[in-house]
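User: Please fill in residues for this 326-position structure.
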């Protein structure tokens, strides 16, 4: 087996970030594209050192003419590598990017549950991270959207999604596939410039590279990495203050102490209120909902908000903001 700098890098990343341990069951999500091929080859090469149980999962969205051929291609690779292959097919064509992503994570979780895999692993790269950061920045988002693609996130109580390639760029995975003659399945929809994602990848990033900074992808990915740690810290601190400001027991999150909240910086006031609203509203709170609740921290006695979705209204009663379900 040829050992390359990318093998060394991924091995270091797995150790340093404690992504997996020895002897674990890893389900690798392989589309057939260059990133996931690079991922599975690296994991197969590291497998003897770690004694993992590897398998490949492929999701057929049934939205391209070559979907079936793509799935067969990935299945053949799994057969050649002597590892199990699991296929999930969409019942009806999944035709928007967001629905496709949701369906895919659902399908991967189902395979992992059925076959007892602790980890689902995807080939997201630093380039994906840079693109996600730009995409969310353009759409308008707080720091939470800019932290863009975390190293790990739970899919269920027992299954974790892991993205070990977040420090590797798409040009590196391309070079790796080329060096090892890995048969990439070219996804024709990646060329479709109707999708904003593809325009970011094919037009915006190359423009930024030529006109602003040749390492723009790595720089943006590092920004996402820094923001991730900051968001985590702020969320934990906000959680602490939510518990401090809220009455204990059954009415937790329904009565909040204004004297405590007043001492906090605005960034934490907003996060506390967002966490409270996430607990009590039937849907995700938006910017306006959070601002209305923050305004009550300093508003005159008996001020109140319009009803939030689900019918709850917030009202000031002396030192307290009370949530009232009318
Ligand atoms: N149809 C699929 N089946 C299984 N896994 C998939 C599929 N599509 C995407 N993934 C997983 O999600 C990751 C990111 O998806 P994305 O759509 O950005 O990748 P892609 O461009 O289709 O393919 P690749 O990342 O393999 O080059 C992939 O690296 C792969 O691990």
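Assistant: Residues filled in for all 326 positions:
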């Amino acid at each position: 087996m040829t050992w390359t700098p990318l093998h060394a890098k991924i091995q270091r990343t797995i150790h340093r970030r404690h992504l997996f341990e020895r002897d674990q069951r890893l389900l690798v999500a392989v589309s057939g594209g260059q990133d996931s091929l690079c991922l599975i080859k690296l994991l197969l090469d590291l497998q003897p050192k770690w004694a993992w149980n590897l398998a490949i999962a492929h999701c057929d969205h049934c939205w391209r003419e070559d979907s079936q051929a793509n799935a067969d291609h990935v299945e053949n690779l799994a057969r050649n590598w002597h590892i199990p292959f699991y296929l999930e097919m969409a019942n009806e064509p999944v035709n928007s990017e967001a629905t496709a992503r949701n369906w895919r994570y659902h399908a991967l979780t189902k395979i992992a549950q059925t076959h007892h895999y602790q980890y689902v692993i995807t080939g997201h790269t630093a380039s994906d991270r840079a693109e996600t950061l730009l995409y969310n920045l353009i759409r308008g988002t707080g720091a939470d959207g800019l932290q863009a693609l975390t190293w790990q996130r739970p899919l269920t109580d027992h299954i974790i999604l892991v993205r070990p390639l977040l420090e590797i760029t798409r040009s590196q995975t391309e070079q790796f596939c080329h060096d090892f003659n890995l048969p990439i399945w070219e996804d024709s929809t990646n060329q479709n410039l109707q999708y904003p994602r593809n325009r970011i990848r094919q037009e915006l990033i190359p423009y930024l590279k030529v006109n602003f900074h040749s390492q723009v992808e790595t720089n943006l990915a590092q920004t996402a990495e820094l923001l991730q740690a900051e968001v985590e810290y702020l969320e934990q601190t906000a959680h602490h203050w939510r518990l401090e400001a809220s009455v204990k027991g059954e009415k937790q999150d329904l009565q909040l102490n204004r004297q405590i909240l007043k001492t906090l910086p605005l960034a934490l006031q907003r996060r506390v209120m967002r966490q409270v609203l996430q607990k009590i509203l039937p849907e995700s709170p938006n910017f306006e909902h959070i601002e209305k609740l923050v305004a009550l921290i300093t508003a005159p006695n008996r001020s109140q908000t319009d009803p939030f979705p689900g019918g709850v209204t917030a009202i000031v009663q002396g030192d307290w903001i009370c949530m009232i379900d009318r």
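For context: The pocket of adenosine-5'-triphosphate is lined by residues 29-31, 33-36, 57-59, 104, 122-124, 128, 187, 190 (CB under 6 Å).
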